[in-house]
Design brief:
It contains nine helices and six strands, in the order H-H-H-H-H-H-E-E-E-H-H-E-H-E-E. By secondary structure, it is α+β, with helices and mostly antiparallel strands. It folds into two domains: 131 residues, Up-down Bundle (Four Helix Bundle (Hemerythrin (Met), subunit A)), CATH 1.20.120; 149 residues, CheC-like (Chemotaxis protein chec). The chain has a six-stranded antiparallel sheet with strand order 1-5-6-3-2-4. Helix 3 packs antiparallel against helix 4, helix 4 packs antiparallel against helix 5 and helix 6 packs antiparallel against helix 8.
Length: 306
């Protein structure tokens, strides 16, 4: 997250348009806005002890929030027969069971390092903007859910396992799932690489892979048998081939189709962010490792045969 973010009070202020019309749910959301604003404003002060105390308090609050508030929301969705209930509940479960524990563990293991605290704050801000301001509005018909593809939970678990197996083989390090509904928030200095595949019936699958620079340097260093600090042309060629191999294997598992690579290349953070917002992926996952994070997202466009 960019510590120089300005106008925190304005950007992360509660507005009446975010109301879902249920007093208890709106009260929970208002409290969450207050908590996240406090976290972000404290981060700007660059006070280690204050940031540490705030993060511990926020984690404690979120553990309670993700039990009590999520239960209220899910009960409301069932009451109104909300069609996106299963998808929404899957996002809730991911936040409660995977993301919050993973972020807390990362901060504790690094003694609340500046990087881990910034990432935690960024993840919280991402949740507020992507979920409360958007997904929660979908359940009362104000907007359309970004997660249009209603994937089966068992299918997602299988895809997660396959992706982790391949990444463990490639990077030869221990990775840990951090967010199985990654919403594109900043994860630090990274490479953004797109691969595009054409499948059966002319379907086009676009995969965005995001890899932290530290993880890239570590991986290339192991392959070349020396310390790597910069990513030269040779290193980028290796990264390109590894990424294409990884995404090709994943797409085959994801679609069970015969596929063909039709395009690939790097983009900058701004382009990735714009693409993510304008064409939200069908599936998006984020992992953490001792050397950095890796994320990927898939968007499938079904095209008609001529």
């Amino acid at each position: 997250m960019n510590k120089k973010i300005e106008n925190v009070d304005e950007i992360f202020a509660w507005k009446d348009q975010y109301s879902v019309g249920v007093e208890a749910i709106d009260a929970d959301h208002i409290r969450l806005f207050t908590i996240v604003r406090r976290l972000l404003k404290n981060l700007l002060l660059n006070d280690y002890e204050k940031n540490k105390r705030t993060c511990i308090e926020v984690v404690k609050y979120l553990k309670q929030y993700t039990v009590e508030h999520f239960a209220r929301e899910e009960a409301f969705q069932l009451k109104i027969c909300y069609g996106g209930y299963s998808n929404h509940k899957r996002i809730h479960d991911n936040m409660r069971e995977i993301t919050i524990p993973a972020l807390e563990k990362q901060m504790e293991e690094t003694d609340y390092s500046e990087e881990s605290v910034e990432h935690f704050a960024g993840a919280c801000a991402g949740w507020l903007t992507a979920h409360v301001m958007l997904e929660d509005q979908a359940m009362v018909g104000k907007v359309k859910s970004q997660w249009a593809a209603d994937l089966d939970t068992d299918a997602i678990t299988l895809l997660q396992a396959k992706a982790e197996e391949f990444m463990n083989n490639v990077f030869q390090i221990e990775i840990e799932a951090e967010n199985l509904n990654y919403d594109g928030y900043d994860i630090g200095e990274s490479l953004y690489y797109y691969t595009i595949f054409r499948g059966e019936e002319n379907n086009v699958h676009r995969v965005a892979t995001v890899i932290n620079r530290g993880l890239l340097c570590h991986t290339i260093g192991k392959l070349m048998g020396k310390e790597v600090r910069t990513l030269d042309e040779i290193a980028m060629s290796i990264i390109s081939e590894l990424t294409k191999s990884f995404t090709e294997n994943f797409i085959k598992e994801y679609t069970n189709e015969s596929i063909k690579l039709i395009g690939d290349g790097t983009v900058d953070r701004s382009r990735f962010e714009t693409d993510f917002k304008t064409s939200h992926p069908d599936i998006s996952m984020l992992w953490n490792s001792p050397y950095g994070r890796i994320a990927f997202s898939v968007k499938t466009k079904k095209t008609k045969l001529a």
